[in-house]
Every structure is written in C-alpha cells, then in structure tokens.
Amino acid sequence: MRPLVLVAALLLGVAACAVPRASAQYPTPAPAPSPPVAPAAAPPSVAGRVLTLEEAIAIALETQPQIQARLSDYAAAQFRVDQALAPLLPQISGSWTAARAQNVSGSPGTGTTQVLRTTTFWTDSTLARVSASQLLFDFGKTFAATDVAKKNAEMTLEDLELQRQLVTLAVKEAYTNINFAQRLIKVQLQALERAELNLKSARGFFEVGTRPKSDVTRAEVDVANARLGVIQARNAERVARVALNTAMGIAADTPTQIRDNLVEQKAEFDRRQLLAEALGRRPEYKQEQLRVDAADAFVRQTFRNFLPDITGGGFYGAQRADMNEVWELNIGLTWSIYDGGNRIARYREAKASLEAARARVKARALDISREVEQAQLTLEETDERIQAAQAAVASAQENFRLAQGRFDAGVGTILELTDAQLALTQAQNTEAQALADHRIAVARLERAIGRR
User: pTM of the full predicted structure?
Assistant: First the structure.
C-alpha cells in the first residue's frame, strides 16, 4: 500500500476515534442547544398609547439592554463549550518552507604551485507537508473540561432569567409608583379645591364682619400648602415615569401613558408551597447548584490531569527541489511525571472550592426562605393597612362634612375646619399609599418565589 493511502487510512481511523462509542468513560456528548438570538428590532413606539402593565413588561423584556447583554453572554458561553470540546476532534495543519543557501567548496589546483581553488554556489531546498493528529485517549480530561464549560453556560442562562425577573420587578414598581403619584395629584387637587372654597367662605364672613382676619389668613395658608402638595405630586409622577421608561429600555423623556390599576386586589398564594416553588424557580438558587456541578466536574478534571494522553498522528509531504515524497505515522504517549506539586495543589484547591460551593447552596436557600417569609408578611400587612385606611377615609370624610357645616353655620372655627381638611387629605394619601404598597408587595413576593 502506498504511503499516501496509509496516511489517508490513518486519518479516517483517527477521525472515527475522535468521538468514541457511548461508554462509561466517554459518553456521547449531546449537541449544544442553539443560543437564543436577540431580535434586532427597533424600540417600540409608545406615543399615543395607554400601556397596560403587561404591555410595559413585554416592551421591557424585548428592548432592555441589560437583557440583550445577557443574551450575548449566553451565546459566548455556548461557544466556550465548543472550544472545550475541540481537542477531541482532529487537528490538521499545513506548512511550506523554501530556503536558499550559499555554499563554498575548495579543491586543489593543478601545476607545481598547488593553489587551493574555491567555488561558490547556491542551493535551493523546499519542504511542504500536511500534518494531522488525533487525541486517542485522555482518560476523560476533555469531557470533564467540557462539562465545566456546559455548567458555566447554564449559569449564564440562569443569569439571563435573573435579569428578566429584575427588569420585570422594576417595571411593576415604577408602573405602580406612577399610579400612586397620579392618585396623589387627584387628592391634592381635591384638597386645593376644598381649601379655595374655605378661603372664599372665610373672606365672605370677614367682609360682613362675622369672622376675624385670622380666619382668612389661615385659609390662605391652607391654599398655599395644597398648591405645594400638587407641585410635589406632579414632580413625583414625572420621576416615576422616567424610572418606568428606563426600566422598559426606551428614552427617559418619552411621554408614556399608563392605565390606572391602583385598586384593591386580593392576591392568592399557597403559603405552604411558596418556599418549594421559590427553590424550584429562583435563578440564583439554580446558579448555586450549577456551581456545585461545575466544581465537581473541575475536581474530576484536575484528578485526571495526573494521567497520560495518548495521541496518534502523521504527516505527508515532499521535500527538495524534485519534491521527493516524505511521510510519517506515529503514536505518542505524554505523561508529566512531576511538576513541582502544581497538579496536586490544583486538585486540592478544586476539592476545597467544591465544599465552598455546597455551603453556598445552603446559604442561598436560607436567604430565599427569609425573602419569601418577609415578602409574605409584608403582603399581609398591606392587606390590613388597606382596610384600616379605607375606614379612616370614611371617618375623615364625615368629620370634614360636619366641620364644613358647622363653619358655614357660623358655629365652627376655621381651626376646626382646617384640621378636618388636613385629616381627610392625609387619610386619602394613606389609602393611596396602602394600595400602592400592596401592589409592590405582590410584585416582590412574585419575585421572591421566582415568578415574572
């Protein structure tokens, strides 16, 4: 058999050995899943639309740059898996070298003088070759390294889900804060309207001589305070809108309009299942578990570094000006006997890192348990606050109605009326705050258990 045929046969056999049959030592690697590709869509237009909460979340998940960055991180991690697996596949390279050298030779002359003659001439040499090598057996080192890369890729995928959950929570909170600010604007405008009516009444009574000037002054102070409240509430709405736009990944000055959902809504959660659901959903907990798996794979990899590598290879080419055929087949065993203790230290480091990763899983479970319990307690507290605030609003409205009637009848004082006015405004603000806190508490509990 000609040497060229021998080399071809070797390469075919080596390629067949690159990924051996499924066995306990070398399981057949599953094909890596295709990484999700971020759509290159233009930011959606929200001008002239009244966005629901679900629409705002959908826009954020599509356009938020933080999510786009995590998508690219996951794609890069998948390519690192391919890099880790690459040593198991054939390695082929080609080379071509040409050189020209000057040579000097001497020969004895003729005659009686015997003078040494020198001759200068040039020689050309050429070498062209194609080399191939194949890792035949490395005791699972490459597969262990590939497992580490796969676990790291899965961690970046969980990081993507974590970012989506955080963005969703930010949208929910900003959306609620806008509604809360808009509710405060309504409350403050109503307070301003009542204060202006009181001022009008106080001036009328003062003009007819039934009320002192101090009543007018006190009413003017109430009007000024109500106007200040309106200004603060409107600014709070603008700030909340900037936060919502930023969370959605659109320009901060976009005139976003949203739907009012600041109403009492009972949230149903099975408290007995919350922790189990959280541990099954939270990407942070999954990441800690994946770190344990990656650390375990790294321990296997560092242990197998004590074992040799068996490699087969060969080359085929030609040399000299006449391109004389040259070829070689070889099998080599590489084994580092002693490296100053480096591999032993790396193995011990890997085992210590594995124990640390296992401890972090338990610590993360405790943190998640605390977050779930605190979120559940906060939600229950907001439910109770809503009921108390609504009762307080009803009482404050009745108290203001009575104080207004007494003042109009000339038997009540301006101090009594302004106190009732302030109490009503505060009760309405407290009710709006309780409703907003309830919405945010629901969103944070959903985040604590890993929901979007």
Answer: 0.77
